Each structure stands twice: as structure tokens, then as C-alpha cells.
């Protein structure tokens, strides 16, 4: 799928970019030799405990509310297989391939720590499935984000056993057994502890968090670019973005966004045209223009906090029970998804607010009472043409949904497993709604970029800044300029693709000085 270098699992903790490379771009995985040695050593310990007449949770007992039930040795392989089959109970639409691959990679990382007690063949099988691009079909609903992402991880484990359905490298749905055979991978026959080790983790919600942070880094740079285009095209001032003013409130993200706005607007003839107080008598711009760095910057700081939590989780070995460095087998609560769930919900709030201020900037450009000389709705022949009127409706509808998606999932809890699992994180649900919110933000920003590009054209013969002009020219490769009404939806979709790919941010920020500060991953 890709020419990217392979990602090593079982050495240093995975980096966020490693997860994106494997999940989204199909990078291959390699197991560090020392990881297989650790795995083999802890497996020897588990096999010794399996022979102990005293019960050990997950090794010689049932699970959850059945943890006190002793399982005879001859029934333990059936116990592990039954666990996976019964827990592979997801329902709803298929989860995206990149999410499933992220989940598989993160579970593989935990298996490779040697803290789970599986055999080396289990580690090797998961790596082989990733490299063969065998993607188990995982369903939308089934995880409560506690005791791990149980149902999603169980669907993956079921496929490793040669059961259930998967997508092959070409995206065709086939039986797992056939896909494994085609890749010369032997189905797993699970032994003591292994079924439990394959499903007790926060891997699904963490994978979606890492993918969202990658996308959000691009979108926050794009939000700065879009805001600059709106400020310029609506004859706003860049004076409020001055570094000394921003330094009076030393918020890190705000400083980054303000620096981006200054750089993107640098040298703008449009901005220069109304600097003279005799030409422009407005004292100050509306909040949606003037306060863009404050809102975008707060979102940046929120994303930085989420990255910190994600980095800690990437260094974790989440399982229950877990094998400690001293060789103890201990039950624990590290599978609880609260740390990840909280930041997923926090990001959904930030995403909704960035989209909200973007939509307000778009609306100002379309209102002749507030746009400082632009025609109503940027229409060609007002009355006959509606211009971008309904594009703003689309943005408003998306923002309304993003506000609903900002309602936190992590404050909810529904007890399960006969009250043994009586408080859960709902982190999987938080991650699912954040993915939808990220998509919505890209669309709202695309509508602002499309609107601002047309507004800049309508300021002719004045020219925009080099950076905003570069974005306007990029937009013109997929969307026409001012003129009579035409079928607008394809243009909106095309600009959305430019936004989501990072092309809009790159067009502006690579035109500015090399010293421009940007978010992670956009240079």
C-alpha cells in the first residue's frame, strides 16, 4: 500500500505518526527481537500458573462476574475461544479501515511489552495480519470504553482465530479463514490468558484520538488561514494581531495563531488600502474577526493537552490481569478509558467552537450590512442570483450538529456484567462522535475558504496578500470565481478535499516566511 519505512513495535513506545503511517498509509510493522524474548519469558510464567491448583483470574477462572468460577485445564482453550465469540457482539455500520488498523497496531504494541502473557505466535499473527492488510469487520456499537474496547477488539481476535468476516487488501469482504489462508497465516488457537489479553485495552478510542489529533493539526492551521482571508476580504484590520498585544495574554496557542494571521496577511494591498483613519472610520472589528487567535489558540492548547494524554497512553501496557516487571500477575483497573474519554470530549468542544466562529465569519461576508461593500451573498446579479446564500445554510447546519456532538459522552455510565463493571467511560462513543465532528469542521472551514476566495476576487482591482492569493488560486483549480449561479455542491466538496488534505494550509503557510510557526504536522 505504501513505500513508507516500516514501524518497529516492541522497542520504544510508538509515536503518533507511527500509528497514522500504519493505520492510514499501510506502513509495514516489524517486531523488535527483544520484544519476542520478553513475550516468551512471561508466557513461561503464565504456563506455570496454569498448572497451579489455586485459581488465577483469566488463566484458570471465568471472566467478569464469573471471575470466581474455576475452569478445569481441559476446558481452558474452549474458555478462551468462547470469550472471543461471545464478546464479538458489535452491531451497526462497519468501522473505517484506518480505525481498525490503528486498534490492531495498538493492541499489538501492548502484546509486545511482555506484560500480557501471550505466546510469541500471537504477536506474530497480529503483525502478519496488518502487513497482509487483512482488516476484520468491526461494528459501530459494542464498546462501553471499560474493560477495554471489548467488542471491537473481539472482532479482531475472532478474525485471528480464522472466524468471522474481514476485508482483504482490495477491500473485498471475505471469510477470515480464507483471507488468512491466502496470506499463509495459520489461525490462532488460543490458550490460557490469551483471549483476555486480546480484548482488554483502550486501543480503539486511543487510535481514533491519534487520528483526530493528526487531522486537527491540519485543520487548526487551515482555520488561521481562513480567518486571515475573511479579515482581508471584509476589510478588517491586522493590527489586533500584533505580537506585543498577544504577549499581554501569554497563552501559547493564541500566540501561534496570531503569528499565522500576521504572516498570512503580510504585504496585503487590500489591508493597506484602508489603514488610513481618513479612509476607514471603524474603531474595531467584530469578535469573529478580531478574536480568531483567541478561539483558535484555545483549541490548539486543548489539542496539546490531548497529545500529552495520548503520549502517556502510548507508553502504557493496558491489560487485566497484567504481568508486572517483578513477575506478579495482578488484577487492576488500567483498562478504564476515562483519561482518553475526557480529552476526546474536550476536543469535541473545541472543534465545535472553531467551526462556530468560522461560520460567523462566513455569514458576515454574505451580509451587505456587515461586509463593507461586498454584494449581498456575493451574488452576480442580486435578485436573480443567490450566490453563496445556501452554502452558509450548510455551514450553519453543520455547526448546529457539532454543538450536539460536543455534549460529553464520558459523563454517562451504564452498569454492565451483572454490576461487576458498574462504572464505564463511554470513551469509544466519545471517539466516534469526535471523528464526525472533525469531518464537520473541515466542511465548515471549506465553506469559509470558498466564500473568502470569492470575496477577494470581488475586491479587484486590489490584490490580496501573497499567501491568501495562493489559496484563492488553489481554490480556483476546483471552483469557479464570481459569476452567475451554478451547481455549487461539487465545488464545496472539492474545496473540502483541499482543506482535509492540508493543501489549503500548505498553499498559504509555505508562501509565508520560513519562520512561521505552525501546528504539528503541517510544515
TrEMBL record:
User: Which GO MF terms does the UniProt record name?
Assistant: histidine ammonia-lyase activity
Location of the protein in the cell: Cytoplasm
Query: Which enzyme class, named as a word?
Result: lyase
Which superkingdom?
A: Bacteria
The name on file for this protein is Histidine ammonia-lyase
Q: Which reaction does it catalyse?
A: L-histidine = trans-urocanate + NH4(+)
| Keywords from the UniProt entry | Histidine metabolism, Lyase
Q: Which InterPro entries match?
A: Aromatic_Lyase, Fumarase/histidase_N, HutH, L-Aspartase-like, Phe/His_NH3-lyase_AS
The EC number on file is: 4.3.1.3
- Organism of this sequence: Microbacterium arthrosphaerae
Stated family = Belongs to the PAL/histidase family.
One Pfam entry name:
Lyase_aromatic
Q: Does the keyword Amino-acid biosynthesis apply?
A: no
Record pathway: Amino-acid degradation; L-histidine degradation into L-glutamate; N-formimidoyl-L-glutamate from L-histidine: step 1/3
Q: PROSITE patterns, per this entry? A: PAL_HISTIDASE
Amino acid at each position: 500500500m505504501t513505500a513508507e519505512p516500516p514501524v518497529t513495535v516492541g522497542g520504544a513506545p510508538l509515536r503518533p505518526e507511527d500509528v497514522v503511517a500504519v493505520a492510514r498509509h499501510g506502513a509495514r510493522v516489524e517486531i523488535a527481537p527483544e520484544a519476542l524474548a520478553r513475550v516468551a519469558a512471561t508466557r513461561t510464567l503464565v504456563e506455570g500458573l496454569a498448572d497451579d491448583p489455586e485459581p488465577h483470574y483469566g488463566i484458570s477462572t471465568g471472566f467478569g462476574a464469573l471471575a470466581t468460577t474455576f475452569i478445569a485445564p481441559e476446558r481452558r482453550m474452549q474458555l478462551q475461544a468462547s470469550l472471543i465469540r461471545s464478546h464479538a457482539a458489535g452491531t451497526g455500520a462497519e468501522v473505517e479501515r484506518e480505525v481498525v488498523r490503528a486498534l490492531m497496531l495498538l493492541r499489538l504494541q501492548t502484546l509486545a511489552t511482555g506484560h500480557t502473557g501471550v505466546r510469541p505466535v500471537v504477536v506474530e499473527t497480529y503483525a502478519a495480519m496488518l502487513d497482509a492488510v487483512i482488516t476484520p469487520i468491526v461494528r459501530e456499537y459494542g464498546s462501553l470504553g471499560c474493560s477495554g474496547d471489548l467488542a471491537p477488539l473481539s472482532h479482531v481476535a475472532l478474525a485471528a482465530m480464522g472466524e468471522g468476516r474481514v476485508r482483504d487488501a482490495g477491500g473485498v469482504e471475505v471469510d477470515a479463514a480464507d483471507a488468512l489462508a491466502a496470506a499463509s497465516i495459520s489461525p490462532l488457537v488460543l490458550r490460557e490468558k490469551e483471549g483476555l489479553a486480546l480484548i482488554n485495552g483502550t486501543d480503539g478510542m486511543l487510535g481514533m484520538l491519534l487520528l483526530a489529533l493528526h487531522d486537527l493539526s491540519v485543520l487548526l492551521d487551515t482555520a488561521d488561514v481562513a480567518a486571515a482571508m475573511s479579515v482581508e476580504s471584509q476589510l478588517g484590520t491586522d493590527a489586533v494581531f500584533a505580537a506585543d498585544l498577544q504577549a499581554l495574554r501569554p497563552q501559547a496557542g493564541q500566540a501561534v495563531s496570531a503569528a499565522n494571521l500576521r504572516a498570512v496577511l503580510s504585504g496585503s494591498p487590500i489591508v493597506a488600502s484602508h489603514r488610513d483613519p481618513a479612509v476607514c472610520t471603524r474603531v474595531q472589528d467584530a469578535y469573529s474577526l478580531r478574536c480568531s487567535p483567541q478561539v483558535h489558540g484555545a483549541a490548539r492548547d486543548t489539542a496539546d493537552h490531548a497529545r500529552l494524554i495520548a503520549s502517556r497512553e502510548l507508553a502504557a501496557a493496558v491489560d487485566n490481569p497484567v504481568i508486572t516487571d517483578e513477575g506478579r500477575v495482578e488484577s487492576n483497573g488500567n483498562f478504564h478509558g476515562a483519561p482518553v474519554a475526557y480529552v476526546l470530549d474536550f476536543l469535541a468542544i473545541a472543534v465545535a467552537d472553531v467551526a462556530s466562529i468560522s461560520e460567523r465569519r462566513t455569514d458576515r461576508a454574505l451580509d451587505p450590512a456587515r461586509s463593507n461593500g461586498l454584494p449581498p451573498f456575493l451574488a452576480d446579479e442580486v435578485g436573480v442570483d443567490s450566490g453563496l446564500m445556501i452554502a452558509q445554510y450548510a455551514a450553519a447546519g453543520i455547526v448546529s450538529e457539532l454543538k450536539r456532538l460536543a455534549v460529553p459522552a464520558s459523563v454517562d455510565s451504564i452498569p454492565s456484567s451483572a454490576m461487576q463493571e458498574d462504572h464505564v467511560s463511554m470513551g469509544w462513543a466519545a471517539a466516534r462522535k469526535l471523528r464526525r465532528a472533525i469531518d464537520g469542521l473541515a466542511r465548515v472551514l471549506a465553506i469559509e475558504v470558498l466564500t473568502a476566495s470569492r470575496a477577494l476576487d470581488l475586491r479587484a482591482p486590489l490584490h490580496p496578500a501573497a499567501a491568501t492569493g495562493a489559496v484563492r488560486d488553489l481554490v480556483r483549480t476546483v471552483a469557479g470565481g464570481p459569476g452567475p449561479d451554478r451547481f455549487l455542491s461539487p465545488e464545496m466538496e472539492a474545496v473540502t478535499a483541499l482543506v482535509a488534505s492540508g493543501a489549503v494550509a500548505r498553499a498559504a503557510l509555505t508562501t509565508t516566511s520560513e519562520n512561521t510557526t505552525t501546528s504539528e504536522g503541517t510544515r
